[in-house]
Amino acid sequence: MLLLRRVGGKSLEPIYRHGQLVLGLRTRRLRVGKIILFEHEGHEKLKLITDVSSKKAFVEGTSHYSSDSHDFGWIDKTSIKAIIIWPRFKN
To answer: For residue 40, what pLDDT is reported?
Structure first.
């Protein structure tokens, strides 16, 4: 299933900008370097996966505006809604 979302915020600048559209694909295949859409405290967030365990992922933003796993800890994989597939991010 595909998900279309509009970026809200600056945490992934310069990769994605506030107001930009992104397309996500629902999947459970996660790996370091992928940008994901996930649910956290009632809000959808976009972050970069920097570490993965069997049940959790550590995520980070790419700008100093970011609130990420350094602040709220590892996220459960069950909270992940999609991996962003467009526009493509190459790391």
So the answer is: 95
Domain ranges of the chain: 2-86
Q: What share of the chain is helix, strand, coil (3-state, %, to 5)?
A: 10, 45, 50
The H or E element containing residue 27 is none
pLDDT in tens, 21-55: 999 999 888 999 999 999 999 999 999 999 999 99
What's the token pair of residue 24? 């996500």
d(CA 20, CA 84) in angstroms, rounded, equals: 13
Q: How confident is the model at residue 91 (pLDDT cuts 50, 70, 90)?
A: low
Q: Are 73 and 15 in contact (CB under 8 A)?
A: no
Q: How far apart are CA 90 and CA 1, in angstroms?
A: 22
Q: Which CATH number fits domain 2-86: 3.40.50.880, 2.10.109.10, 1.10.10.10, 1.10.3120.10?
A: 2.10.109.10
CB count within 10 Å of CB 30 equals 13
